[in-house]
Every structure is written in structure tokens, then in C-alpha cells.
Amino acid sequence: MIGLGSGEPGYRQCSRAGCTAPAVHAVVWSNPKIHTDGRTKTWLACGEHLEFLTGFLSSRGFPVSAQALEAEAEEV
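^ thats the sequence. predicted structure below, dont judge the formating
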């Protein structure tokens, strides 16, 4: 997934350029011209940039779906 890393374990950052907000959505997409084997890519989105990222991809004709990120289980 794009957007991993801030130095903090488990931190997931929004994939929008310049955004450092925590991600709360996964944006799953593919480019049918090059992803002919069913492969998908995943971008991460904060609440503010979800619409921008999904719109960017869908305006190019890419199949795209968005889902809420699941909270990671706490390690003991």
C-alpha cells in the first residue's frame, strides 16, 4: 500500500501528495490496460481526500472502490 510510514509502527498515511493525515480509507483500483491479470493497487486516503483520489482514478476510466480501513489489533 502506498502511504505507509511516518516512522511510527502501524501508522498509515494518506496517499494524496503533501498530505500527512492518517488514512481511514483504502482506495482499491486497477488500470485494465496493464493489470490484465486481476491485479489491483491500493492507495490510502484520509476523510478529506477520499473524494479527490477516487475521482482522480474514476475520471481516467479505472475501476475503483473505497472501503474503511480496519483498525489493527493491539499487540500484547
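Residues 50-58 form the longest helix (9 residues).
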